[in-house]
Input
Amino acid sequence: MKAPLLIALLTGLSASCQKVPGPASPALSIGQPFSLASQQRTALPASSGGPVQLTLTEILDSRCPSGKQCIWEGYVAVTVELTDATGASQTARIGLSRIPIPPYTRDSVAVTLNQRAYWLRLLAVSDAPASADKMATLRLRPQ
Output
C-alpha cells in the first residue's frame, strides 16, 4: 500500500516541477565579438547567403602562468572550422604571440564565406568560468 502512494506522490512532484527559462542569450551577429569553448559550435547570421557555422576545434596554450617568471612568454593559438550555407568549409589557424608560430597566422586571417570576404580575428583566450576549460573570444567581420 505504501509503495503505490509513494510512487503517486513522486510522480506528482516531478510533474509539478517545470524548467524556469533563464535570461535570453544575446543574439550573435557578424562584426560583434563572441566566445566559444573548445569543441563548441555557433551560427552567425550573414547578411547574404545564409548563416555561417563556426566550431572551435582546438586551443593550444603554452603561455607563462600568472605569477611565474618564464624565459619565454609562450603563445596561445586556436583552430576554427568555418562552414558556409553551401556546406563549403575551411580551417582557420590563428595565434596570439609576438612571433608567428607556423601554421598559425598572427591574430587574424582572411576567409571567404557565402562568396564574401571576411576577417576572422582572435581577440583573447581566457579560462572559462566555473571550468578548467579555456574560451576563445573571436570576431568575424566583413572585409
Summary: Residues 61 and 110 are 23 Å apart (CA to CA). Confidence is low (pLDDT under 50) at residues 4-25.
